[in-house]
Design a protein that fits this description.
The structure holds 2 protein chains of 2 kinds. Chain A is an alpha/beta fold. In chain A, 30% of the residues lie in helices and 18% in strands. Chain A has a 21-stranded mixed sheet, covered by helices on one side. In chain A, strands 1-2 form a two-stranded antiparallel sheet. The two termini of chain B are 26 Å apart. The longest helix of chain B is centred in the C-terminal third of the chain and has 16 residues. In chain B, helix 1 packs parallel to helix 2 and helix 6 crosses helix 7. Chain B is globular. Classes of the chains: A alpha/beta, B alpha+beta.
Chain lengths: 580, 333
């Protein structure tokens, strides 16, 4: 391939780059964003890219149809598919809304018979679909289901029975009908390829015998996350078969009947030299926690969000975990526990503090602003925070922003809606103002507390890298939403609930929504007419309104979901979803 | 029947941060509702403490404009998850510019709101939601149901469907109401029940207790959070006592050290019990009538039939309980 500059000073190609070579080079590119860019360069590159692509990521299953995907990308081996709007996690989306995976599977069975991996998030998956997947795709290897619903353990039986080359079965946090643990016993003796097995979120007991044999014969197993029914001594047996694990989710970390002294379990982890992730730890008490200390030195991710630890229990544990990068906690550890985080974990990049009892107002304190500040002091590398608390101040957040300017994800949930700064009684505008002004790399923001349009003015003005914004019970007028739509150039996902934003706000984004993945607005002041206007002006958007089941005012649009699509209006919309 | 406002006044006085508010809460003198506005002032001043004070707002207790009949009819839906309020997918109503949120939570009986609306975040408003409801353990008889509109209360007392409802005393009603809102806080359902149980049983993790599970809260003076135990998983006081000792051992035995105790002896039951019984802490419970009694005086079955919550109290605070317990058992016998 030779490039020459001709007399006009233009580059020309004297011979074309052979497609095969281009494909080979492009095959090395993994990021789907990069691949999208590559495909826009020119026709040759578009073709080379589409032939070399092995993994396709579809962030909104209704933005494109299976047929279009299959037509463009002939050689896909791995698919990631996301369905329902995120607020469906919090019961804001009625059941039977859609996002059924079956149409995709049907299309893929002809287009991609050699499909190996499927990762689904917030999709509706039936047992029949799982059986279809297991039987129609002979080389199928990896299944990951996160926040999906509609299936039962019978579907898992089908996967275990038929997928002869299964390397990954990752079941997380799904709305699943747990009919028993027999599915695990369906793995045939001949299956030895398993590398990832996660059934931590399933409730029923599996046959320990079957599990032990499975673990023993799968020599490449590197991720094992069991459910709560697996006891400590059972866990010990499992670990003896797979010391090579890199990620472990324990079962219950307490023995009701102490059959022997703790010393019996003391060596359980001493052979696990490769552990970098530890989770589970249900019911962990200080009596048994020391058992994990030998494994702590290499841990980078510790998920304690199921363990109701106190501050001193956490402090003792963390003193062994100096290399932690990611830490998930329950707010039972209190501010004092967070102080320990600040002093023990200087490399920390991600912290998530979940409320142990979010709906019970009898629980004292949890964590407050001072815990957050302590962490920020000791962990300047923090990038990702999810923090549930019951009180916060503007000053504290400003301090936190100063201490940790590298935030990319800042999700603060002051659990009482519309709560002001508890010391000054002022709105929390300055808090989020400080965050967006200081943290220029901010990609994701979730705001809470009492907020006026000021907050949104700050966000629109400063949050130039913001891609995802979650808003609830905030704002004073349409201006709020307008600021954001005008100012945040990189905005892709905007989800709003219970805010006083109306038609003017909605329509101010007329030209913007096609550059975004989606907009969700519920319990705001938007009317059907405005939605119709939007739909009419922008035919490449799907403007969907969910009818309120209780009737009520038909002119109010209670739940609005707007997203760009090349697939046209949904054909599977249930009766309560109106596509305008 | 006492009115809601009297309860509030009690709580306002004790707007501290400890469990001691529960003591003596059972019988209060009546205060008529004209005192409500006065209490609002107190509440305004107490906004500072709002975030840290002990409040018992029932999730769903402040839903305005709720038809009592509608609530009664839909109380069954709470059977599924008696410990935690349901977040129904319906009923998230926003009215206009005010952020007013109706809880879709189907409580057992009507809430009792003096004013029909309540607002968030704005200080100094009088949106008074004076509900007083009493916590009932699932399976237990609804012993004490207080309601500001007292005319409703007597009927509710006999409603068997309320047996699985959780109703709590509403300590104070700051304008930023404690009501349950659909889908808020944004916590996924599998995370709602972390504290549901400590024991390793199949049926509790998703909030569906097995037949006969009887969860009560256990609190301890000085402990930063509560635990819950299933009374039906024990058959004797001995078992309950040792389980509680294990659960709260760190609170009583700061000096004993829990790091890798070599043998089980260092946390032996007898040693714990000695410490517990060594006049440092006593185990008490609140019974159906709202009285605090020492645990152990009545037969086990009678105990679990009437126990609504447990509390590990400092010995000094428990003085005066014994005589009442004696009297009560005399009256019962």
């Amino acid at each position: 391939m030779v490039d020459r500059v001709d007399s006009a000073g233009e580059w020309t190609q004297s011979s074309r780059f052979p497609d095969e070579v281009l494909e080979r080079v492009l095959a090395l590119i993994d990021s789907h964003k990069d691949r999208s860019s590559v495909s826009l360069v020119c026709k040759d590159w578009y073709n080379a890219e589409r032939w070399s692509r092995r993994h396709v990521f579809i962030g909104n299953c209704y933005s494109v149809s299976p047929e279009i995907v299959a037509a463009r990308f002939p050689r896909i081996r791995s698919v990631t598919l996301k369905g329902k709007p995120r607020f469906s996690d919090f019961n804001l989306v009625p059941e039977d809304w859609g996002a059924d995976v079956q149409p995709w599977l049907s299309a893929f069975s002809t287009a991609y018979p050699f499909l190996e991996e499927l990762r689904l998030k917030r999709m509706a998956v039936s047992d029949e679909s799982l059986e279809f997947l297991a039987t129609k795709f002979h080389g199928f290897k990896a299944l990951s289901l996160l926040s999906c619903d509609g299936f039962s353990t019978d579907g898992l039986k089908a996967i275990a029975t038929h997928c002869k080359k299964l390397t990954e079965l990752d079941i997380q946090e799904n709305g699943i009908d747990d009919l028993g643990g027999h599915w695990l016993s369906c793995f045939p003796e001949s299956l030895t390829s398993l590398e990832i097995l996660n059934f931590a979120s399933l409730n029923s007991e599996v046959s320990f015998d079957a599990l032990e044999k499975l673990v023993a014969r799968c020599k490449s197993l590197r991720v094992l996350k069991v459910n709560r029914n697996i006891s400590l001594d059972q866990l010990q047996k499992l670990l003896s078969h797979c010391p090579q694990l890199t990620e472990l989710g324990t079962g219950t970390f307490m023995q009701e009947l102490i059959s022997g002294p703790v010393a019996e379990f003391k060596n359980m982890f001493s052979n696990c030299r490769n552990l970098i992730t530890l989770s589970g730890l249900w019911d962990a008490t200080p009596f048994y926690l020391p058992v994990i200390y030998p494994a702590c030195a290499s841990l980078t991710f510790l998920n304690l969000s199921y363990a109701t630890l106190r501050s001193d229990e956490l402090a003792n544990l963390l003193s062994h975990c100096k290399t932690l990068r990611r830490l998930w906690l329950l707010d039972t550890v209190g501010d004092k526990g967070l102080e320990a985080v600040g002093s023990c974990c200087p490399l920390l990049e991600e912290l998530r503090v979940f409320p142990a009892d979010p709906f019970d107002q009898e629980i004292l304190l949890g964590v407050t602003e001072s815990g957050f500040v302590s962490v920020s002091r000791g962990c300047p590398k923090l990038r990702y925070v999810l923090y549930f608390c019951r009180q916060m101040t503007n000053a504290a957040v400003a301090t936190i922003a100063r201490n940790c300017p590298d935030f990319t994800h800042f999700r603060l949930c002051i659990m009482n809606p519309g709560q002001p700064d508890y010391l000054t009684k002022e709105p929390m505008d300055e808090a989020f103002g400080a965050i967006v002004k200081t943290c220029t790399k901010l990609q994701r923001l979730a705001i809470s507390g009492l907020l006026t349009d000021r907050t949104f003015e700050y966000i629109g003005k400063y949050a130039k890298n913001l891609e995802t914004l979650s808003v609830a019970f905030a704002g004073s007028s349409d201006l709020g939403m307008e600021y954001v739509l005008q100012g945040c150039q990189k905005l892709r996902k905007l989800e709003i609930r219970d805010c006083p934003f109306g038609n003017a706000a909605l329509l101010s984004g007329l030209t913007k929504y096609e550059s975004m993945r989606s907009l969700w607005m519920s319990a705001c002041n938007v009317t059907m007419n405005a939605c119709r206007v939007l739909a009419k002006e922008r035919p490449r958007l799907n403007v969907e309104v969910m009818r309120d089941e209780e009737g009520g005012d038909d002119s109010q649009a209670h739940k609005v979901y707007v997203y760009r699509t090349v697939a046209g209006p949904r054909r599977d919309a249930p009766p309560f979803v109106l596509t305008l | 029947m006492t009115s809601a406002s009297s309860m509030e006044s009690i709580f306002q006085k004790n707007a501290g941060l400890t469990e001691r508010n529960y003591l003596g809460l059972s019988d209060c003198s009546s205060v008529d509702s004209s005192a409500v506005s006065g209490i609002s002032d107190v509440k305004r001043n107490n906004l500072n403490l709002k975030a840290t004070e002990l409040r018992l707002g029932l999730p769903g207790s402040q839903s305005p404009e709720r038809d009592p009949d509608a609530d009664l009819a839909s109380s069954e839906s709470l059977d599924e998850k008696p410990l935690f309020p349901l977040l129904p997918s319906k009923d998230g109503i926003c009215s206009g510019s005010q952020k007013i949120f109706v809880s879709g939570n189907k409580r057992g009986f009507s809430d009792t709101i003096d004013e029909g609306k309540w607002m968030f975040g704005s200080s100094g408003t009088d949106s008074d939601t004076s509900n007083v409801n009493v916590k009932i353990s699932p399976g237990a008889q609804p012993a004490m149901i207080k309601d500001a509109t007292s005319k409703v209360a007597p009927q509710e007392k006999t409603h068997a469907t309320f047996g699985t409802n959780l109703n709590k005393v509403n300590a104070s009603n700051p304008p930023a109401a404690k009501a349950q809102v659909v889908g808020w806080p944004p916590v996924r359902s599998f995370r709602k029940n972390i504290l549901a149980t400590n024991s390793k049983t199949n049926d509790e993790v998703d909030g569906k207790p097995g037949p006969g599970a009887l969860f009560v809260k256990v609190s301890m003076d000085g402990a930063p959070y509560l635990r819950k135990v299933d009374l039906r998983s024990y058959t004797t006081y001995q078992q309950l006592s040792s389980a509680l000792e294990k659960m709260f051992s760190c609170f009583t035995l700061g000096q004993c050290g829990s790091q890798g105790a070599p043998g089980r002896e260092s946390l032996s039951e007898s040693k714990l019990r000695d410490l517990l019984h060594g006049s440092e802490y006593v185990l008490t419970y609140e019974d159906k009538d709202g009285d605090w009694m020492l645990v152990g005086d009545v037969p086990w079955d009678m105990f679990i039939g009437s126990c609504k919550r447990l509390k590990i109290m400092k010995g000094s605070d428990a003085i005066g309980l014994a005589p009442r317990a004696m009297e009560k058992s005399k009256n019962r016998n």
